[in-house]
Amino acid sequence: MYLQLFLFSGSCMIVDSSDHDPGEKARLQLPTMKENDTHCIDFSYLLYSKSGTNPGTLNILVRVNKGPLANPIWNVTGSTGRDWLRAELAVSTFWPNEYQVIFEAEVSDGRSGYIAIDDIQVLSYPCDKSPHFLRLGDVEVNAGQNATFQCIATGRDAVNNKLWLQRRNGEDIPVAQTKNINHRRFAATFKLQEVTKTDQDLYRCVTQSERGSGVSNFAQLIVREPPRPIAPPQLLGVGPTYLLIQLNANSIIGDGPIILKEVEYRMTSGSWTETHAVNAPTYKLWHLDPDTEYEIRVLLTRPGEGGTGQPGPPLITRTKCAGEVRWIFLFCFVLLLFIYLFLPVCFHCNGAVTIAIVLLCWYCQRSESSYASLAPVFCLCHLVGVNLSFHLLIIEARKL
Ligand SMILES: *[C@@H]1O[C@H](CO)[C@@H](O)[C@H](O)[C@H]1NC(C)=O
Ligand SMILES: *[C@@H]1O[C@H](CO)[C@@H](O)[C@H](O)[C@H]1NC(C)=O
Ligand SMILES: *[C@@H]1O[C@H](CO)[C@@H](O)[C@H](O)[C@H]1NC(C)=O
């Protein structure tokens, strides 16, 4: 059950623990505030029971922009004695953002004594005993990276305070490192390890001592997903030693902007992989082996460390057989025609053709490895040709 009071100047709250069940809460909510510069809220509090038993807990919550209530930024449990104590709140949430301070008294199992708040004031000057945080900036990282928040605060004696990073959903992250910048200023570093999309939220710095609390603005942790193409690359052309592809990387999963596109390819039967940066929509893979299956994938990179996404789906395709078969047929046909018509009885000419073919093979082998496998075809053509011319020779001989 919540007992809510809407009072301000000179407002107070007294909870008599003996009147309530353990766990019951009373809240005193201050009006929503929109402040432009440094200011301080101070108040008096008392947790007291005659018998010395624990009357309960006093929590202070700061809700920003009507968002969810995060964990308390300050709390005290147990009897603090019969004297009123004074504490300060340095809230660094500025116009146009608004915030609301909520005092919450929670009754303990002891069910005796009082939890009281009094004399709440908004001062137009900085707090004296609680450090004020400077503006906390948003942090953007790629998924899988470590994110770092750095909170800088001004105030005396601040390094001995309790310090943590508070996530708006309630999680508290302990400080990784603190260091003094000078005698009135210190920096605290918070690390979130290998963040994922689920870590994306608002975070703020909190410091607490028995004399009060400081709390920064909420800053956003933005987790970017490295980009990955949705579709495999498209095949535009194929030859025995090359593949012409279109990267097909306009539709992506993840976040842009894309600053680097790479083509990664390998023989499906091999173990090596090659990667080439590409800055055109199409790319020609050269010096491939003929009649071989290749797997080609596209890698995309966005700015920042760890910005390269997983490779997209693969295009699996084969290079053509060495040489164009129809050219071989044409070549054989012309060769045979030549032998038939003009060289029926000329062994010397046959010899010349052999030499020409050997030279052609040698040339092909030198210029493009894929034509090397044409050699057997040429030789076959040649054998057929020689055979035929030999037959013709016999026919001629018979005629004589
Ligand atoms: C804060 O500043 C804005 C514009 O700079 C102004 O409109 C607003 O009234 C100021 N608020 C306070 C509380 O001074
Ligand atoms: C204050 O609240 C935190 C949760 O934010 C809790 O872990 C801690 O024990 C509380 N301290 C006291 C003194 O109640
Ligand atoms: C994140 O930090 C941990 C420990 O500090 C380190 O081992 C790890 O390599 C870091 N990860 C990345 C991606 O930098």
TrEMBL record:
Domain MAM: 1-129
Residues of the signal peptide: 1-17
Record domain Fibronectin type-III: where: 229-322
CDD domains given in the database record: FN3, MAM
Membrane-spanning residues: 327-360, 372-395
Domain of life from the UniProt record: Eukaryota
SMART domains from the UniProt entry: FN3, IG, MAM
Keywords, alphabetical: Disulfide bond, Immunoglobulin domain, Membrane, Repeat, Signal, Transmembrane, Transmembrane helix
Gene Ontology cellular-component annotations: membrane
PROSITE patterns, per database record: FN3 (PS50853), IG_LIKE (PS50835), MAM_2 (PS50060)
Domain (Ig-like): residue spans on this chain: 131-216
Protein name: Protein tyrosine phosphatase receptor type K
Lineage: Eukaryota, Metazoa, Chordata, Craniata, Vertebrata
